[in-house]
Write a structure and sequence with these properties.
With about 190 residues, this protein is α/β, with parallel strands linked by helices. The protein is about 45% helix and about 10% strand. Strand 4, helix 4 and strand 5 form a beta-alpha-beta unit. The two termini are about 25 Å apart.
């Protein structure tokens, strides 16, 4: 996912990053997804710091590698771009977006580490919530009062907004739920 230069000035394809790593380059890789997403599949060596918990100044103070770019990955690229903006606001500009995120990495046929997560992946949670609200709203509109049709209308507008902007309000809300925050937090806001 290439973003306009005003948002992200540098990006790299999963295949190119994999080649760099295979060639022996030290690539500091930050994964800004939720713990369940990371647990289900992640690039080996990626450090997890969910976007909501990211404190760029604290992260940079505890960064194990000195110098060199920071590669940032999420599920598809949108959260990684927001994380890079946080780093820029903190004065650190040497960040590189991994295009297409973890899904792009998987789609390229590159290896990932898979774990066992008992939590449904975040996008499936969004689909379940959106489908449920839409179905209940339509059912109530047909059987109780036509004004309940506003529920599926609002959900539809939210989906359009998510598609246009790459920001899903429902996903942001669900990512903050307790079942999606099941790791311990270190003193720099990173999860281990």
């Amino acid at each position: 996912m290439k973003l306009p230069p005003t948002q992200v000035s540098s990006s790299i394809s999963p295949a190119e990053l994999h080649r760099l790593r295979q060639g022996g380059a030290t690539c500091d890789l930050l994964d800004v997804r939720t713990p369940p997403e990371h647990a289900s599949a992640h690039v080996a060596g990626a450090r997890l710091v969910p976007l909501d918990d990211l404190d760029p100044a604290a992260f940079l103070r505890q960064r194990p590698t000195s110098g060199g770019p920071l590669y940032v990955i999420c599920q598809s690229g949108a959260r990684a771009a927001r994380a890079i903006e946080k780093f820029r606001s903190a004065g650190f500009t040497d960040c590189i977006l991994v295009e297409g995120g973890t899904q792009g990495w998987i789609d390229a046929g590159l290896p990932v580490e898979r774990g066992t997560s008992k939590v449904i992946p975040l996008m499936r949670q969004v689909q379940i919530a959106v489908g449920s609200i839409s179905a209940v709203g339509a059912g109530l509109a047909l059987s109780v009062d036509y004004r309940f049709a506003v529920l599926p209308l609002l959900i539809g507008c939210g989906l359009i907004f998510a598609g246009v902007t790459g920001t899903c309000g429902m996903a942001l809300l669900l990512a903050r739920m307790p079942w999606n925050r099941q790791s311990t937090t270190s003193n720099c806001g990173s999860r281990v």
